[in-house]
Amino acid sequence: MRQRIYDLLRSVYGYSQFLGHQEEIIEHVIGGGDALVLMPTGGGKSLCYQLPSLVRSGVGVVVTPLISLMRDQVEALLQLNVRAGSLSSAQTPEEAHQVFQRLSAGALDLLYVSPERLLRPDFLDYLHQVPLALFAIDEAHCVSQWGHDFRPDYLGLSVLENHFPMVPRIALTATADVTTRAEILTRLGLGRARIFISSFDRPNIRYTVIAKNNPHLQLRHFLTRKSPKESGIVYRISRNKVALTCDYLLQQGRKALTYHAGMNSKQRQENQDRFLNEEGIIMVATIAFGLGIDKPDVRFVVHLDMPKSLEAYYQETGRAGRDREKAEALLTYGLEDMVMLRKFITESNADETQKRVESAKLESMLNYCEAFSCRRNILLRYFGETGGADCGNCDICLNPAPVWDATLASRKALSCVHRTEQIFGVRHLVNVLRGIESEQVLKHRHHLVSTFGIGKDLSERQWHAVFRHLVVAGYLCKNDHEFAGLKLTHACGPLLRDEQKVFIRQEPEEKFFSSVKKKNNYKRAVEEVFGEGKEDLWDLLRAKRSELSLAQKVPPYVIFHDATLRIMAEKQPRTLEQMMAISGVGKAKLEKYGPVFLRVVEDFIKHHRK
User: Fold this and answer.
1) Which ranges of 497-561 would DSSP assign to H, the alpha helix?
2) How far apart are CA 359 and CA 365, in angstroms?
3) Strand 503-505 to strand 403-405: parallel, antiparallel, or no bridges (unpaired)?
4) Residue 522: which residues within 8 A CB-CB, separation 6 or more?
5) Phi-psi region of 277 (alpha: psi -120 to 50; beta: other; left: phi over 0)
6) For 135, which of 40, 169, 208, 455 could close a Cys bridge (C-beta 3.0–4.6 Å)?
7) How far apart are CA 53 and CA 56, in angstroms?
8) What is the dihedral of CA 172, 174, 175, 178, to 10 degrees?
9) Using one digit for the tens of pLDDT, what is the confidence trace for 431-448?
């Protein structure tokens, strides 16, 4: 059996070895066992159910929440000569009929369906007549009612235990804390499932978090290091901000598209298809975009507004670098984000239990933003994984900043809030503390209060950091006054009595973004092989891939991942045997594309020999 598994891995997928727990999971499911698999995005979750479906008799039924994900997965499998199909509302009756015919004839190894389709009584009855290899429930965290991607239809998937007790089930997700894991097991009836938890670490992603200060300008500085050919995602908290940021990027000469729930389904699908099929697209979106997006070469994910939880942040940043090549995640956050997200929770219609859960998740997110130590270790600990040494690939590790004693400054800030009636916002409070006689300060006679000018020793930026920390720590909260300002909480008593200390990380100057445009990661990798200025083969291979993908109307990465083309550029194979040895080139792709890409390599070598 083990040899059979490795033969399929090499011949179908083009890989010579498994990653992490993949082999153990695959053997367990082939043996008929249930499983809950937690594996980071890009860690190879799909192989854990695809390969067992090829080994076991019958069809593997894969439940996924999005039609776009079904389509992408099926297209990728067809490229591998795997017999795959899907049933979705996007199909015509004739197309669905053809899938049912293939299913009845035993001509499918994998069938992708939505949860609502699977749960139809007539479809469940039909499946009783079909040999089944397994059920795979992808994006299993969607079952969590307190999660960031809750899908009500997922709650009904527990019926599979009663309908098909002898068919193994495997639930998979990249995002689940301890509470969500327990919820998945309970709601899906997977009490006997074996749990496989891979490391949540994504070492190829560089995490950077900075205080928000003109986010569009910060985004522009960040993008100066990015090639126009690199794809990325920029998340905004509202539809209006999505539109503003997209317009800004277009003005800067970038290819940008929008995606949010306010667009009609045709517009969303067209923009998503362009993002998947073209290079250099920046998708500006709300959190409505991304679940199930299988594009491996997203080089960066930017949050210009703070997510409401670390699960959401981890899930969204995980859409970068799925190919395990270098990628970046940038987050800008500010006091406005904190106040607004807390307001969303307190004013929601949720019950008190859910509000407490959401508040705790937000506190973890805030603490991550205000952290003094390695961000990667904070993320790992949040998901129950013991962090090791500092990662060396986050802003705190790369740009260590000292911590300063902000106890006195914090007491001054709290006193100023009290002296100004607890109704004003941070900008006004900072002006009072710094002794600035603004129009509003004079209008409200706050130049006469005892806290006027007592904070001249700190800059405006430093004072914003102090207030931000006081909100995170729960000493201040939003008031209900028309000015939408801050008020003291009961927690501030010990601090005002000097019974507590406050320490804040001194914000480094924003040196993360060089104004000098650097070559992108891939070009640097190719230059290391060919030397400066000889990266043409990389461009030629990508151009050929784009030509083929356009002709077949499939995303470029369905033909070959960037990582495979990079190895191809490095190794310069001259024969089909040498091509077959490249990771990501299986038998089907060798037959379809081997000769085509060999000619590209041969022509390149001939040209450079002249």
Assistant:
1) 521-530, 536-552, 556-559
2) 10
3) antiparallel
4) 325, 538, 562, 566
5) alpha
6) 169
7) 5
8) 60
9) 999 999 999 999 999 999
d(CA 406, CA 433): 15
Residue (of 358, 405, 396, 360) closest to 502 by Cα position? 405
- In sequence order, what DSSP letters do the residues of 336-379 get, joined into one string? HHHHHHHHHHHTSS--HHHHHHHHHHHHHHHHHHT-SS-HHHHH
In order of 373, 397, 508, the CA distances from 401 in angstroms are 10, 9, 6
d(CA 58, CA 133): 5
* Distance from C-alpha of 153 to C-alpha of 156, rounded to nearest angstrom: 6
- Going by C-alpha positions, the residue among 456, 453, 465 that lies closest to residue 502 is 465
Buried b (16+ CB within 10 A) or exposed e, 100-138: bebbeeeebbbbbbbbbbbbeeeeeeebeeeebbbbbbb
In sequence order, what are the residues at sequence separation of 6 or more whose Cβ sits closer than 8 angstroms to the Cβ of residue 478? 339, 342, 343, 484, 485, 486, 487
Residue entry with tokens 């030509």: 547
Q: What would the pLDDT profile of 232-253 be if each residue is shown by its tens digit?
A: 999 999 999 999 999 999 999 9
Nearest-CA neighbor of 306 among 382, 210, 199, 165? 210
Q: Do β-strands 35-38 and 194-197 pair in parallel, antiparallel, or remain unpaired?
A: parallel
Closest CA to 116 of 157, 153, 74: 153
Between CA 577 and CA 563 the distance in angstroms is 19
Residue that is written with structure tokens 């994006």 in the block = 139
Length of the chain: 610
Q: For residue 55, what are the contacts with CB-CB under 8 A and spacing of at least 6? A: 1, 4, 5, 8, 30
Task: Produce one character per residue of 69-89: b if its CB has 16 or more CB atoms within 10 Å, e if not.
Answer: bbbbbbbbbbbbebbbbbbbe
Is pLDDT at 524 greater than 70 in this prediction?
no
Helix 426-433 vs helix 460-472: crossing angle, to nearest 10: 130
Provide φ and ψ at 11, rounded to 5°: -75, -40
Backbone angles phi, psi at 81, to 5 degrees: 65, 25
Helix (H) or strand (E) holding 30: helix 22-30
DSSP for 83-113, written as a single string: -EEEE-TTS-HHHHHHHHHHHHTT--SEEEE
Closest CA to 380 of 391, 372, 369: 391
Amino acid at the residue 263: M
Q: What is the pLDDT of residue 336?
A: 84
Instruction: Give the pLDDT confidence of 451-488 residue by residue, as tens digits.
Output: 999 999 999 989 999 998 898 888 998 886 655 689 99
User: Per the structure block, which two tokens stand in for 531?
Assistant: 């030397």
